[in-house]
């Protein structure tokens, strides 16, 4: 790889860090490890071709162009967390990955398919997941926790918010959200 290619790759990885919180190679390798996949299976679940996934991982491409693929990545990240904490078994994870693969984006991890109330208003869980997705698209969990630690002495409530929504479990964030309404 010549200097121009190295520079382009470094720039793509830096853009990925700003858009997705970390370079996609690191994110995808973690999903592969955490969910027991190989690169071809990950590509099949997410939707892009295996060569496209490889280009994203290597930094030859910077951006995931399809928003549904970005949402599937987020769904797999949450699934990996749930597998790691034991709330989802390996067998359930396989079924859920098939659901993610079939999805057009959005959360497929909730047991009910509803994302809105009868009035059309978003559910608390949906609002919380949007907040989590936004924070996690800006920075990696470790960076969010570091920021929370820096804020804690002067702004403990903001630090708690960052920890709960930026690096915590969805159930804890829902409880936090509900406790701060009214």
TrEMBL record:
Name listed for the protein in its UniProt record: DNA-binding protein
Top-level taxonomic group: Bacteria
Organism: Streptomyces vietnamensis
Low complexity: bias regions: 103-120
Record-level Gene Ontology MF annotations: DNA binding
Region (Disordered): 94-122
């Amino acid at each position: 790889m010549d200097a121009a290619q190295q520079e382009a790759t470094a720039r793509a990885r830096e853009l990925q860090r700003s858009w997705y919180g970390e370079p996609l190679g690191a994110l995808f390798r973690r999903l592969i490890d955490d969910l027991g996949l190989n690169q071809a299976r990950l590509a099949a679940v997410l939707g892009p071709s295996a060569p496209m996934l490889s280009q994203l991982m290597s930094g030859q491409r910077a951006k995931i162009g399809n928003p549904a693929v970005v949402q599937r990545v987020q769904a797999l990240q949450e699934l990996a967390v749930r597998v790691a904490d034991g709330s989802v078994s390996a067998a359930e994870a396989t079924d859920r990955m098939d659901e993610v693969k079939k999805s057009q984006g959005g959360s497929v991890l909730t047991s009910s398919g509803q994302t809105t109330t009868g009035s059309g208003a978003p559910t608390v869980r949906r609002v919380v997941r949007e907040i989590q997705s936004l924070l996690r698209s800006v920075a990696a969990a470790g960076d969010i926790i570091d920021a929370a630690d820096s804020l804690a002495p002067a702004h403990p409530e903001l630090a708690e918010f960052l920890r709960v929504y930026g690096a915590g479990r969805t159930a804890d964030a829902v409880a936090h959200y509900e406790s701060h309404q009214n």
